[in-house]
Amino acid sequence: MNKSPAPVIWSVIVLISLGLTTIWSTVPNLFLSQLSFVAIGIIFLIIFSRIELSLAFSLSLPLYFFSLFFLALTLIIGEVTRGSTRWIEIGPVKLQASEFVKPLLAIFFANFLSRHSMKSLRNYLSFLILLFLPAVFILVQPDLGSALILLFMGLLMLFVSDVKPKTLIITIFLGLLTIFPAFSHLKPYQQQRISSFINPYSDPSGGGYNIIQSVIAVGSGQIMGLGVKQGTQSHLKFLPERHTDFIFASFAEEFGLIGSLLLLSSYLLMFSFWFGLSKKIGKKENYFLLCAIIGVITFQFLVNIGMNLGIMPVTGITLPLVSYGGSSLLTLMILIGLSLNLNRRHSIPREDRV
To answer: What gap in Å lies between CA 273 and CA 337, rounded to an integer?
Structure first.
């Protein structure tokens, strides 16, 4: 019997509600906009919880090429904002291609892994090429955060495939060797973010400012929080990006440790449901798709919370379902809808899966 999806549904309700409350408190002029995104997101969640997954998998190759086209189109006609070309304007609507391609690529790679053994070196190299190609398009925008999410998703899917552990270890090792040479090719502000993470107080009014203000905001919330609309760091605008990248700091300042535990518990409830579901899914493509969903949302959650606490570099990754942003929210609702869809599918014992 399939598990009740109640844990996921309640987690989504709580996280969206906490996000809306924080946005209403810190940037009230954006509240109605985010509320409209939530309404559209609910529709997306319902649609993707009901679509026929076999049809989606059969179209996985066209979805992959559409993703590449969409990313390339962004570089050609996209709007330049703060030195990055990430958005395409369609009338009054702005779309972030690097967000919307996540579920499309998740479907493609899930189908690819279910049909190709990673024990074959040719298949393994093909997977890596297919993974790095959209990542490069995203890096060129530049959008390091989204590229890292995509790479993490792909590596997690490889990890749970039939790839030889030795092959995966060698790949990760070679990838680590590229970190230092790649650092010199990053944009100056990206280099500054990494340097400031190592020692934010070396430039407290410059590169380290964001991290320092975020840590101050989180700490000032103490146990009970300062109260709605009472946060000094966010309302006095000391805290940058208080409704997107650093919304957790805004939330922690106003709702304290108690509120933060509620927020974190909601994520853990959702993740525990998915981990339990992963043990029951029978079809390979369904299993890999669920791993992709877990990978995307877990990575965003860990990195965002980490950078708000000053233990991760600032990468511009938003907090799932909480941060302001239409493209991000709609993409996450699609992914969660797909996970609910997977829960509806017939399950067989895990040992028969691979």
So the answer is: 14
* Neighbour tally for 127: CB within 10 Å: 21
pTM over 0.85: yes
Q: Which two structure tokens, joined as six digits, stand for 231?
A: 């946060």
Is residue 327 within 8 Å of residue 81, measured between CB atoms? no
Are the C-beta atoms of 294 and 278 separated by less than 8 Å?
A: yes
Q: What is the SS3 string spanning 10-67?
A: HHHHHHHHHHHHHHHHHCHHHHHHHHHHHHHHHHHHHHHCCCCHHHHHHCHHHHHHHH
Contacts of 208 (CB under 8 A, 6+ apart): 196, 199, 200, 201, 202
230-271 pLDDT per residue, tens: 888 877 777 888 899 999 999 999 999 999 999 999 999 999
315 φ, ψ to 5°? -125, 5
**For residue 78, what are its two tokens?**
């996209």
Q: Is 173 exposed, middle or buried (0-12, 13-18, 19+ CB in 10 A)?
A: exposed
H or E element: which one contains 140? Answer: helix 121-140
Helix, strand and coil content of the chain, in percent to the nearest 5, comes to 70, 5, 25
Q: DSSP string of 76-134?
A: HHPEEETTEEEEEEETTEEEEHHHHHHHHHHHHHHHHHHHS-TTSHHHHHHHHHHHHHH
Distances (CA, A) of 312 to 179, 218, 304: 16, 15, 8
Confirm if 314 and 307 have CB atoms less than 8 A apart: yes
Question: Mean pLDDT for the chain?
Answer: 87
CA torsion through residues 62, 295, 328, 198, sign: negative
**For 193-230, what is each residue's pLDDT tens digit?**
565 555 555 555 555 677 888 888 888 889 988 988 88
Report the SS3 class of residue 162: coil
